Amino acid sequence: MAFNAAPAFKAALALSTTALSATALFGGTTVSAHAAPAPPRTHENFQRGLVKNGADPEAKARRPHAGVAAGEHVLKVDLLGRDGKPTTTDHNSRLYVWPLDGSDPIGLDMANGHAEGPVPDGDHILSSKIFDTAPDGRTSVVLLYLPKVAVGADTAVTMDGRKARPVKATAADRPDAKPTSTAAVVSQRLGDHYQAITTMAADDLYATPAAPGGDLQLDMTAQLTRDGAAEGSPYVYNISSSVKGIPDDPSVRVRSADLAEVGTRYPGSGGRACGGGHASPLWTTTAQFGTYSQVGKLPAERTEYFTPGVDWYLDYAITDPSCDFSEYDLLLRHERFAGPGRYARTWGQGPFGPGKGGLTPDSEGQNLVQVPLLNSADGESLPGSLSFTQGSTKLTDMSGTVVASSSVPGYLNGSEPAKPGRYTLTVDAKRSASWTDLSSRQHIAWNVQVTDPKATVPLGVVRAKVPGLDASNRAVAGSFQAVSLTPDGLTASGAPKVWTSADDGVTWRAVPVVPSGTGWKAVFVNPSSGYVSLRTEVAGVVDQTLIRAYGVR
């Protein structure tokens, strides 16, 4: 299938510790993308499958006192499963008692459907989960939840799993759409804080209804693919639902026409590659889930559906054909689709180059430099180590003395803080990843003025977008080419100078630059073969070189 985007593209880019804001108009429909603030971190393994962000809320539960103290009474709780029988300890081992005044929760041990122990007088949430795995391997979680139980005397309560109802998502007009992941968070106000009380994720989820009140909320996310395929589905549904209370029917039924229908291209970059990523709705609670979808072999195209009116945090990783993600490139962005309709976008469209970074001369007594090096037209990268990349980051004073340095391109945290004065900051990177032949080398040099050692100095750059690249990030050889240039964190207003190279930076040719929107446009003719490298200089601010920005054929 093919998705044709309208030519209008407007972008205002700003990273870091960064935020991308890009608005694209596709056939009259607006897509807004916002990249998440990115804390500095080194390369970590990319986790396939469902991920949860946020601390486990039940981990801070304390054991009850051995005896009843003043101001306490005994709470006795009996739990029944969905079959009406007392739960067994191997499936249901803990009951959590959350004081509504915001005190730490108490964890009572369940023994064959019964728990008891002293708890403080007052109002409490009672929460417990039943876990099971069916003979066919399907997992299930049944949540029994009471949002307010008053304790002022010895109290006995029965929690009945027969009242639990399915928490799931279905596509009413697509019967072959089956869930690959379903997860939910129940949140409620405790004292003056609204927080996640419990989370659950399994093939099948159930919850007992609870009327709205006390700021009780159920957030649910689900991903659906054709027949529940883990890879290769021509479509993916990303569903989010947030409701007050736990309704009598907490399931969600969607229709494709009520969702954002996003035609998505996943280009390759010159080598055999695999892609995959997570979609996480940004709820107002303290826990989030991200569902994972493996795109598989690149390049690829598919249709992705999203619940509109929801802020989505997205990541996308590219690795070798093994799809094990032990080494990878990572892109991030936020998206919000205002309403139903047809949209189009890409993930992994080159060039891949630097984004706005920052230098904090005195961060905990050290220089801190953060510069993302693989930002693209459709996503942000993180400062830190990259797969199969070597190089350096150096801060040099006007006498030529190296004040601080690291062997990590785009990241430095060390040495004594820089004193007020002028410096040159350089980042050099050389990489050779099997899944790409692009962005083989980068050299960026900033002129930096330190005045306040505690203030972060922005490290602005010029971002490039190359219209017309194909599914392998190649342009047409010998064709007329216009490259959009957008300031990212730059304070200077002058137009940059631009050079291109067709021999990996051995020789350079100046090309004309003209104003275009909030940035500029460079115009030239592509070479007959090979690659196009770009050098961009903003006088007195930054000089950046990207070898093999894109290929031609």
Description of the structure:
This protein is mostly beta strands. The chain has a domain at 464-552: Sandwich (Immunoglobulin-like), CATH 2.60.40. Helices cover 0% and strands 54% of the residues. The strands form eight sheets. Strands 29, 30, 32, 33, 36, 38, 39, 42 and 43 form a nine-stranded mixed sheet that branches. The chain is elongated and about 85 Å long.
Class by helix and strand content?
Answer: mainly beta
Rounded to the nearest angstrom, the distance between the terminal CA atoms is 22 Å
Rounded mean pLDDT is 91
Shape: elongated
CATH level 1 name of the domain at 464-552: Mainly Beta
CATH architecture name of the domain at 464-552: Sandwich
Largest sheet: 9 strands, mixed
Strand content: over 45%
**Got a strand count?**
43
Provide the helix percentage: under 10%
What CATH calls the topology of the domain at 464-552 is Immunoglobulin-like
Low-pLDDT stretches? 1-43
Number of continuous helical runs: 0
Radius of gyration: 27 Å
Short description:
The chain has 553 residues and is mainly beta. The chain is built from no helices and 43 strands.
